[in-house]
Design goal:
Layout lengths: L6 E7 L9 E2 H12 L1 H11 L18 E3 L4 E5 L4 H16 L5 E9 L1 H17 L3 H9 L1 H4 L4 E2 L5 H5 L5 E4 L4 E5 L3 H19 L13 H5 L4 H6 L3 E5 L6
Parallel strand pairs: 1-5, 2-6
Antiparallel strand pairs: 1-7, 3-4, 4-5, 7-8, 8-9
Length: 245
């Protein structure tokens, strides 16, 4: 890119195929226990006491809990996964260790029309209330299919659901950067990413951080050829213009 990149917003879009979509309940349990433990996570971060990474350029404004996305013509909400925290950790490393310009980041997911928003808000409030209590977490993990409207099951997706899943897109708002999964993202594309990351560890050792420890993917692989490897194996990153979107 020409100039200095100072801020990125990403919008995740996932479409299911004619067989519908389903996720194994291991992911559901991770969400249940992760949210239940978020207060302890805040205490640990506060105890570590990292100095804030400087803001370069205009400060990226946080969007609302629900907003209509003019670019995609549907409603969007903040993405509740760990992406934001992981990216911030990567940017801290790139700034402090490699003196690169830190990039602000906001993660969002497109959820569809107003009906989808209402359903999601009702389910989200119920979920957040139940994870606060031991009995609530028991109910959520014991009766996963009921509370997730069968989006999560103990068996996971069928072979047809995996095979016929529409690709998902991960788009940045401005340039536009697109990460396009040519296969089902959870059970097909993820193993591809893991294998290619392992290949990078073996073949790009000189490009990895010099000291051992726990690193976020952006910190560990930023100087390797991982993106090139993924582009050749069905997880494509490309920069396109808005009309092409």
């Amino acid at each position: 890119l020409k100039g200095t990149l100072t801020a990125v917003e990403s919008f995740l879009t996932v479409k299911s195929g004619p067989e519908g979509s389903c996720v194994h309940d291991g992911t559901w349990k991770s969400a249940v226990y992760g949210l239940a433990d978020q207060d302890n996570l805040r205490k640990l971060r506060k105890k570590i006491g990292y100095a804030p990474v400087p803001v370069v350029g205009a400060k990226l404004k946080r969007r609302g809990l629900v907003f209509y996305n003019q670019e995609f013509k549907e409603y969007s909400i903040p993405f509740m996964g760990s992406d934001g925290s992981v990216v911030k950790r990567s940017q801290r490393y790139l700034y402090t260790e490699l003196q690169e310009t830190p990039v602000q980041y906001g993660a969002y997911v497109n959820v569809g029309g107003l009906g989808s928003v209402i359903k999601l808000m009702f389910a989200g409030v119920l979920f957040l209330l139940l994870v606060k209590f031991t009995f609530g977490r028991y109910l959520l993990t014991k009766y996963t299919e009921f509370f997730s409207a069968r989006r999560f099951t103990k068996k996971g997706p069928t072979q047809k659901q995996v095979t016929n899943c529409f690709p998902s897109q991960f788009l940045n708002k401005f340039f536009v950067l697109v990460c396009f999964f040519l296969a089902e993202p959870g059970y097909v594309a993820t193993p591809i990413v893991m294998v290619q990351a392992a290949v990078s560890l073996l073949e790009d050792a000189a490009c990895l951080p010099k000291q051992g420890g726990v690193y976020s993917p952006g910190a560990a692989f930023s100087k390797t050829k991982l993106i090139d490897r993924l582009n050749k194996h069905g997880v494509e990153f490309s920069v396109i213009s808005k009309p092409e979107v």
